[in-house]
Amino acid sequence: MISFDEAIALIARAVRPLGHEDLPLDEAAGRVLARPLTARSAAPRQAVAAMDGYAVVDAATRAGIDLTVIGESRAGQGFAGTVAPGQAVRIFTGAPMPDGADRCIMQEYAARDGDRVRFAEGYGPAWHVRAAGSDFAAGDTLLEAGTRLTPRAMIAAAAADRAVLSVSLQPRIAIIGTGDELAAPGEAHLRADAIPESVTFGVAALTAQAGGRVVHRAIGLDDLPALEGAAGEALAAAEVVIVTGGASVGERDFAKPMFAPHGLELVFAKVGIKPGKPVWLGRAAGKWVIGLPGNPTSAMVTARLFLLPLLALLQGQALGEVLRWRKLPLAAPLGETGGRETFVRARWDDDGLVPVSNQDSGAQGALVGADWLIRCPAGQGALAAGDLVRALSF
What we know:
With about 400 residues, this protein is α+β, with helices and mostly antiparallel strands. It contains five helices and 26 strands.
């Protein structure tokens, strides 16, 4: 049994990006950039007005003096001439500043009469001009390789004037839930000894958020020959196979044996953490296989800690993108830790982190309110409200 840090180090050494593809900009949202994205041209390409108003020569303008309005400048249709002292051009937000003009005076200070305009006292000190290249210059790197194309990143990608983006291949994911006791939600009540299969739904949703594409899902009974066949189908369909349950040491724990005919080679077999000690990672038929515990809380905690780093590395991201630990205060006491490194589920309130009351590995209702994991070293003593802890968004 190895430590959490040792397991993460093994993943970092073993996993390589899947490759990349080119996608139209409008299909790239949510994907991960495979190459740095640079700006084709500066933004703005030339000085533009930051307000609706009048473009003037500042040195020749003061309150109460009439200026001659000689034209207007709109976004996409600038004024072609030159502004001389004593002249002004009506200008709108985002429109190019005319040659000769260096200041935009807001329209709230303007009194217009035909082709004459004068300005009231107090129109300074802001000049309301965005300089050429003040946002970014041509050739600037706006997004680094490994950046996920969030809504905000999509703004930058479009602003770079790039119609096609190079993005990492999306990992195809197969999920197999195991256990005789499992039944599809909506059917479990029909069998006295059945429980609704919930883990694969949570894991699938987490996988989708992390950029994976679930292409195959199956529920397998505790029958080794049948599970071996299910493993083969999953390996043929995906780059990553997630199997839930059957990962302990019982006589009917088939999660590892079901992959043995497919050449399973383990990277690690269990990790000294609580919850989730039975989590494991391996390779079979050239594909990644990760085994998660069957208990819902254990499965989701280990998926957050190990599956997300795996998916990030496959998409060319750095581990820091998904394992971003923060120092945060406790808003309630936290009990001492036992002999294993423990990840305590907690929720955030106005004063800090509050450990959820039900820390059982099989808890499902308590998961809804848990949005942080508190990392507690083995043997850590009790902590009080206000103490700082290391935490990871959950």
